[in-house]
Amino acid sequence: MLRIKRLYILIFKQFALLFIGTFFIALFVLMMQFVWRYIDVLIGKGLSIDVLAQFFWYMALMMVPQALPLAILLSSLITFGNLGESSELTAIKAAGISLMQTLKPLAFVVLLIAGASFYFQNNIGPMSNDKMAQLIEAMKHKSPELEIPEGVFYDGIPQCNIYVQEKNLDTGMLYGIMIYRMTGSYEDAAIILADSGRMQSTAEKKHLLLTLYSGEWFENMRSQELANSASVPYRRETFWKKDIVLDFDSEINLDNGGMGQRAQAKSLAQISHDMDSLKLQYDSIGRIYYREGKASYFDLPNLKRDDTLEVAAAVKDMVFDTLYQRMNVDKQRAVVNAAHAKVQQMATELEYKSLITSDGDSWIRQHLIEAINKFTLAFSCVIFFFIGAPLGAIIRKGGLGVPIIVSVLVFIIFYILDNTGFRMARSGIWTVAFGKGLATAVLTPLAVFITYKANNDSAVFNMDAYRNLFMRMFGLRLKRTVMGKEVIITDPDYAHDAAQLERISEEIKSYAHDHHLKSPPNVVKVFFRYQPDNEIERISEELEAVIEDLGNTRDKYILSHLSRYPVLAVKAHTRPFERRWLNVISAIIVPLGLFFYFRMWRFRLRLHKDLQDIDKNSKKIIKRIGSLNVKH
Fold first, then answer.
1. Which of 44, 301, 445, 601 is 20–30 Å from 426 (CA)?
2. In this model, does residue 570 exceed pLDDT 90?
3. Sequence-ordered list of residues with C-beta below 8 angstroms from that of 67, at least 6 positions apart, any chain
4. Alpha carbons 149 and 169: distance in angstroms, whole number
5. Do residues 114 and 128 make contact, with C-beta atoms less than 8 angstroms apart?
6. What pLDDT, on the 0 to 100 scale, is given for residue 250?
7. What does the DSSP 8-state code read for residue 264?
8. What is the reported pTM?
9. What whole-number distance in Å separates Cα of residue 326 and Cα of residue 630?
10. C-alpha closest to that of 356 among 275, 278, 270, 299
11. What is the pLDDT of residue 233?
């Protein structure tokens, strides 16, 4: 028992060191991806060191739950890959300790990490996400002259909407400027047009100085309007150069209320509470819309849900064409226009109502996605461990080569599935549970399968086995190579081998004459009434025995011709599979059956050629053996 505890400590030490290193590497990679996403917010804003430190700190806190699964996958894969490569895993199994027993301590540690991941997402993650959203929003307003886009209105400055047709990033000049400045209500808006201008912050960072060139100023004088006057005075000013000071605090301020309405900035309890509130709110809106729809569309205030069929039957009995034809032309036109206006009004109302209800559905989906994400991301730590550790035990490759490649491939599959499910669930195409559970649902059976294979010492990732299977499937084969031996204990029995080759040649000729290998195979025999070809199997065994005995010769001529003997495929020309039911199924599935039928025909043709080559090669070897006997 003490030996097992020491083993657990040894494995835990290796895993812990690798986990710490891979965690920070994964965190760095994810942080760099996030930085490139917001690189335009950071560059050229004159941000201080403390602001950048806050940005990277909150970003690191946000990326911790995403870095944990990747770190567990890579560290467990390297740990057990190192144990397998150094044959320590073999020694552990030889001592009677199974792989599952070896995984127990690390599995317990991974469960603790998964719990810490869930706690982190539920408590620290929402706070860091909220602070990061505030910080990014504040940094966007740090230098608004850099944020103003071309061709659209920018409303990042309080009480102003600015439109810029073109801007020069090198000189900071803005061209084609249009400004809507709100001083009170929309009636008091000032409209400013200018050919060009420049915007810059004042020294105290509390105002913006907007210098405009060659423009006009239009403004309603609402404050000077007489109480009983219907006319509103306005003023128009033409200027060549004008300086406008706008109130704008460009300092970074994180104490402005936050972005708490976002689902990412809420804990599980807050999400549950807000989802109940949202459902109650939008359910009440839906009931109001339903009552309005009954009253307005059917004009029957007391209509019940079950009365819809009666209304439809009454409408069906009415002959609208007859009523319409009895009207005069003016009345018909008026009826059509009224109906068209009514339909447009209903369509507009329904579109507006659909926007409100779809927004509510979107908010509820976002909260539900974030709630499920807290569980799936923590559970992915466990899944990645039971993928990485057994894979390392199977592959038996440590270091940073093969493990990194395998880890990246697994993580890419997880990321694609998770991101696809997230986007589909967010848009409402898939249900939220299906979208967010897609990645874990796919990888969980994979983890179970790999763990089962590793625990049973399966060679599921033996590349040689897959290569041989591929070669057999497509009729490929390795070239026979017979090398001379440095030490020969027993010389070959040349007389017996020559007699054997002569008999094999006669049997080959008889076999080729009886089986008509050039003709296509019989469908019924190969798929439904299979009979083994014992004769060619016996010929192949006898030929291999002769080749093995003659391989002890010192004669280079015989050795070279032994290498020319083809390796016979003794079963591929008779049926696709060993089991009869598989042959029947492959015949029923037409495309698969055609593939195997032509594959068997190809093997029959190849066997015919191989038998001819064997006969020619045997004659040369027999002749060479005869010359050796003459010399002796």
1. 445
2. no
3. 23, 26, 27, 30
4. 11
5. no
6. 54
7. G
8. 0.61
9. 124
10. 278
11. 65
Q: What is the dihedral of CA 503, 508, 514, 517, to 10 degrees?
A: 170
Distance (Å, whole) CA 80 – CA 110: 15
What is the pLDDT at residue 380? 93
Of 145, 154, 175, the C-alpha closest to 44 is: 145
Nearest-5° angle of CA 140, CA 143, CA 147? 60
Tell which wins on pLDDT, 546 or 471: 546
Contacts within 8 Å (CB) and 24+ apart, 136-142:
136/38, 136/41, 137/259, 138/252, 138/253, 138/254, 138/256, 139/41, 139/42, 139/45, 139/47, 139/51, 139/55, 139/252, 140/41, 141/248, 141/250, 142/45, 142/46, 142/47, 142/250, 142/252
Q: Residues 172-201: pLDDT tens digits?
A: 788 988 888 876 555 567 888 899 988 877
- Asked whether the beta carbons of 511 and 611 are under 8 A apart, the reply is yes
Question: What pLDDT shows up at residue 564?
Answer: 87
**What is the C-alpha to C-alpha distance for residues 534 and 184, in angstroms, rounded to an integer?**
101
- Per the CB < 8 A criterion, the answer to whether 568 and 475 are in contact is no
207: β partners: 247
Rounded Cα gap, residues 570 and 295, in angstroms: 83
Q: What is the mean pLDDT of residues 413-422?
A: 90
Separation between Cα atoms, residue 112 and residue 533, nearest integer Å = 60
In whole angstroms, how far apart are CA 169 and each of 44, 121, 156, 195, 198? 11, 40, 19, 17, 11
What are the pLDDT digits (tens) for 304-353?
545 444 545 555 555 566 777 777 888 878 888 888 888 888 788 777 77
How many whole angstroms separate alpha carbon 175 and alpha carbon 178? 9
Distance CA 356, CA 367 (A): 17
Q: How confident is the model at residue 114 (pLDDT cuts 50, 70, 90)?
A: very high
C-alpha dist (Å) from residue 109 to 99, 105, 461: 16, 6, 27
DSSP string, 526-547: HHTS----HHHHHHHHHHHHHH
Residues in Cβ contact with 556 at an 8 Å cutoff, skipping those fewer than 6 apart? 484
Residue 242 host element (H or E): strand 234-247
Angle at 117 between CA 115 and CA 120, to 5 degrees: 110
Cα 501 off chain centre by:
60
Q: Is 127 helix (H, G, I), strand (E, B) or coil?
A: helix
Residues in the chain: 632
Using DSSP's 3-state secondary structure scheme, residue 297 falls into helix
> Given a cut of 80, is residue 537 above it in pLDDT?
yes
Query: Which residues in 263-393 belong to E strands, given as ranges?
Result: none
Which 8-state DSSP code applies to residue 485? Answer: P
Say how far apart CA 255 and CA 263 lie, in whole Å: 20
Q: Alpha-carbon distance 125 to 247, whole Å?
A: 34
Residue identified by tokens 């290796």 is 14
As a whole number of angstroms, the distance between CA 456 and CA 157 comes to: 67
Q: What is the Cβ-side half-sphere exposure of residue 611, based on CA atoms within 13 angstroms? A: 25
Closest to 521 (Cα-Cα) out of 581, 603, 611: 603
Proportion of the chain above pLDDT 90, given as a percent: 11
